Amino acid sequence: MSYSTFAEARAALSNDETSCEALVSSYLERIEARNDAVNAFLTVDRDGALNHARYLDSQLERGNDRPLAGLVLGVKDMIAIKNQALTCGSRMLEDFTSLYDAHVIEQLREAGAIFVGKTNCDEFGMGSSNETSYFGPVQHPEHEDYVPGGSSGGSAAAVADGMCHAALGTDTGGSVRQPAAFCGVVGLKPTYGRVSRYGLVSYASSFDTIGPMGRSVEDVALLLNALAGPDTRDATSAEVQVPDYTRALGRSVEGVRIGLPEEYFAEGLDPDIRRMIEAQVEQLRDQGAEVQSVSLPHTEYGIATYYVLATAEASSNLSRYDGVRYGHRADLETMQAAIKEEHEALHEQLGTAQSNGDAERVAQLQDQLDTQSDLLRALYVQSRTEGFGDEVKRRIMLGTYALSAGHYDKYYEKAQRVRTLIRHDFLQAFEDVDVLLTPATPTPAFQRGEKTADPLQMYLSDVYTVPANLAGVPGLSVPIGTHPDAPHLPVGAQLLAAPFDEAGLLHVGDALMKNVPA
Amino acid sequence: MLHETYEPVIGLEVHCQLQTESKLFSPEAAAYGAPPNTHVDPVSLGHPGTLPVLNETAVTHTLRMGLATHCSIAERSFFARKHYFYPDLPKGYQTSQYDTPLCYGGYLEIDADTDASGTNDTDSARPSRKRIGITRIHLEEDAGKSIHDQGEAHTLLDYNRCGVPLIEMVSEPDLRSPNEAYRYLQKVRQLVRWLGISNGNMEEGSLRCDANVSVRPKGQTGLGTRTELKNLNSIRNVERALEYEINRQIVARERGEAVQQQTLLWDADAQQTRTLRSKEEARDYRYLPDPDLPPVVVPEERVEALRDDLPEMPNARCHRFVDSLGLPPYDAEVLTEDRAVADYFEEALSSLFKRTKGGDTNAQAKEVANFVMGDVMQTLNETDHTPQTLPVTPRRLAQLVYLRLEDKVSSSGAQEVFSLMLDHTDASAGKIADDHNLIQISDRSHIEPVVTSVLNEHSDNVKQYLNGKDGLLGFFIGQVMRRIDGSPDPQLVRTLLTEHLDARSQNQ
């Protein structure tokens, strides 16, 4: 009873070979069987999904069809669904329930989608392996010791493992495209502004996007039809016409100008992935595409620029989690104990300073003692210390540093200027080519624990995806086969296009995927 | 006097809540006085995933204030996040403006200190004006309210105010006395009310003021160390706190002590300031351009349209009342304190002009001014009425003024008619005067026989009067008035009595 793509299920639904309820039931069974191992879903809304499926079936009987009727969807737990948990993979929001629906949830529900559950992710979207989730790592669906990528690892794994037709991810620096590549599914990061962010919990506001992940380019196009468009509640959403994205599919690539950015095929790229991409390029050339080499000269500054700007925004966005109105709050006893401990340490230092006759230090410590005893301060410090994990704290500290007096010009402002240069690189390249073709990741999925000790190595796994977020351009990750090394992990190619040319990406992506032997 | 050798230098930072239906960044209502936490929504509470959307009316209000104070308008300005942790600040930052305020480089005119030059020029027709520079006016959101004094260890939080639009208006340090600061604030309050962008109520907190003050020896141009005064919740408190603080700084300097740069709270009960925080505790707000809000772009056409749409400003209107209507400056000042009153006055006057069709227009204006500054303003003060809701509409007031100008009613009669008009809203002034026998009898032939008989009947009193007891004239007037039905013109009665008494004196 399970269909490999939503498009196939849709055909079966039209022929009365299945029902929405039957589709949901079969996916619930799969989740039941597999989720303990994979840990892709944090919550499963069994009753809600079945009820909505029955409602849709009754609507279908009356001839009320909807474009996504019967689509069983996983939703990354960074996106708000009214009256459902919204954890962002964090202890901070472990018990938080959203009061409202995200714009995309309203749009998709209207289109007939069924939300089967919330998917696991790196804490607040910060991570590339799904190992920073407070609720445990997600396992790669095919190889239990490997990571599924991140931060939308739960969504990618759920789709790859057949626990849902498709899923929503969020992409701030590659969080849709990288796990899609690692898990062998299709993932789209739309143009910044193409899809409303209202209801997407902010990590880095000027980078964050919501993107669909599916088993075919067609499914992703169908989802984008419902997701795209302006929203009055998001001032950064764009008033740009939404085409029917499925019309981009099934067309020849003849005459399409494809650029290969030199900087994406340089040092650090796995040689087998390079060969696999080159083989794809040859096929596209044979089919009439015009392939040329291009340069994006500021690519090397991408990761550094991203980690200054994104962490600066993150440090600001995450200030709201203070334990006052909602979210994790430390116990009163813990706070008092922390105050006492600090007090004792300060008193000890004070004694030393006094016996040394260091008047300045004495005054400083006296002052500190006054503020340290503040219960309010302890509430903030303890709640945030307990509520956030290490990677989140690392990024808050990085961002706070970059925004501090005396550092702003050196880091934040400079990084903004580099961001403009990177965007300019892309716009320049799209004068000459329609799409850029690159590897999605420098390596296939890595083993769990392999990079957790070295954040910089972890950050570099996003080296090919981050520039698109800096430039705001759309990107699509498409599976192009499995790596020749054991254990034959999936490999993805990335396509990038000019702002709002998602149709161009889907067009070439569809052709690319059809060239891959099943 | 010590104070004569020192000069205070004062700059004011005024926060003013804008009157808009919804909050600055969310559709929730921005109403004052509702039960705690009833005007909150996920956006204003900063719930995860919510985003701000700018209220355009608040931008328009800010631009109007900027134009009214001769500011330049930024073609492109940004919102910035100002970070600090406090429980009444739900997002951990206040969305404000930092290096690109919407309006900058303007000024406001106040009446100059009359005693500054040592001369008292209250006699001159128009007091001289002093320009106070406006450094900037920017738009930001208000925080919620922390209520601390509700039992020990408890702080209550009300988020209704959270996200209500505020303008922050920073003056140049151009003010030289607490009284100038007082007049500057009065002017600001008048202006925001005039423009209809705020109720300017300091007691409700919709107008708030912080003051920066330093002192320096007179004649010196450098600035002394300044302190910042907060919690100044009435215009009078601003003046008092500044007086206190200036005195404190002068005394400190005279004692050879340095003035510390610090933030002080004004304690209105104790009438003194106390330290809130020192310079060392200054916060790093880590300003960040708000990535959720696109830049505010104000094209030249919008600025020009708003400029054209500005009402005539109080100063200009005041001058016009003096110059073209011949009103005394004091009257013009009083009438232009409140825009609705000034509108009422002008409507009544133009309605009157339609009746008089010429004549001494200055006298007519003065007559209307007297009524507005008298009965009308008294009624406004004593009732909940506004000039717009007053039952005596400008047109009806013109009817009454006309009766008075035509001498159809006496001045006390007119007052009576006015108060009757408050209750009898469907009748004209003339009808009310008629119905209540308040139409003046100014027919000589009607009054003269009564004068004659009163004087005949009181020949003793007449004798005493003629022997110099002038006070008896009032008695004769009273007698005559009492004997005539209706309202004899008291002026005419007086004239006739004097004539007759004069005649009797010559006959003596």
Describe what this molecule looks like in 3D.
- The complex is a heterodimer of chains A (518) and B (508).
- In chain A, helix 7 packs antiparallel against helix 17 (502-515) and helix 10 (332-356) crosses helix 12 (375-387).
- Chain A is globular.
- Chain A has helices at residues 6-14, 20-38, 46-61, 103-111, 153-160, 177-183, 217-227, 271-286, 302-317, 332-356, 359-372, 375-387, 390-403, 409-432, 455-460, 466-471, 502-515; strands at residues 41-44, 72-76, 114-119, 166-171, 186-189, 209-214, 257-261, 290-294, 435-439, 475-482, 490-497.
- Chain A is α/β, with parallel strands linked by helices.
- Helices cover 44% and strands 12% of the residues of chain A.
- The two termini of chain A are 21 Å apart.
- In chain A, strands 1-3-2-4-6-5-10-11-9-7-8 form an 11-stranded mixed sheet, with helices on both faces.
- Chain A folds into 2 domains: 6-305 and 425-514, Alpha-Beta Complex (Amidase signature (AS) enzymes); 322-387.
- Chain B has 508 residues and is an alpha+beta fold.
- Chain B folds into 3 domains: 2-115 and 125-301, no CATH class; 312-438, no CATH class; 441-507, Arc Repressor Mutant, subunit A.
- Chain B has helices at residues 2-5, 56-68, 178-195, 235-254, 300-309, 314-325, 329-335, 339-356, 361-382, 394-405, 411-423, 429-435, 444-457, 459-466, 472-483, 490-507, and strands spanning 6-17, 72-73, 76-77, 80-83, 93-96, 103-111, 129-141, 145-147, 156-158, 165-171, 207-217, 227-232, 262-267, 272-278, 288-289, 296-297, 440-441, 487-488.
- In chain B, a hairpin with an 8-residue loop joins strand 8 (145-147) and strand 9 (156-158).
- In chain B, helix 15 packs across helix 16 (490-507).
- Chain B is elongated and about 95 Å long.
- The termini of chain B are far apart.
- In chain B, 39% of the residues are buried.
- The model of chain B is unreliable at 116-125 (pLDDT under 50).
- The chains are: A alpha/beta (518), B alpha+beta (508).
